[in-house]
Design a protein that fits this description.
Layout (H helix, E strand, L loop, with lengths): L5 H24 L3 H34 L2 H22 L7 H22 L1 H5 L4 H17 L3 H7 L4
Length: 160
Amino acid sequence: MATLDPIAEFREDHRKVRDGILDLTDALGRRDIARAKEILMELNNLVGPHFRYEEESLYPALRTFLGEYVDQLLNEHNNVIETAKACLNLLSKESLTEQEAEDARKAAMSLLVHVSNCDGLAILSERFSQSDLEELGRKYEEARKQGVPLLEWADTIRGK
């Protein structure tokens, strides 16, 4: 078996993203720009390899079970990427108005829906053969090894 269990790692990534989003919304609520930007960069680094694994390996494999629903997951990724870009742009300011902070907080909270929906894919992944899981584990390891952050991956590698 691969050294990496793709199902366990997938779920653990979702826990980290969940916690990061909640921490980000807390920092935004306090208008702590420095902390919010730090959390956003942590999420950017974590989510880049995760999304790459999903889009290049897991989602194609899950089409067997989900068919066109995979396209909805890809659209959700588009939304996550656009939200992250908008949040990063907002956090480049020296200060945020109360309304800007609240809008950013709400946008970040909306991403929890994707985290929750996506984590449910783990139960379908349990139906893959052992050899398929080993291959997925290798691909997950490779995405992590390359370590391309989300926004860099989205702008330079994704869809090419």
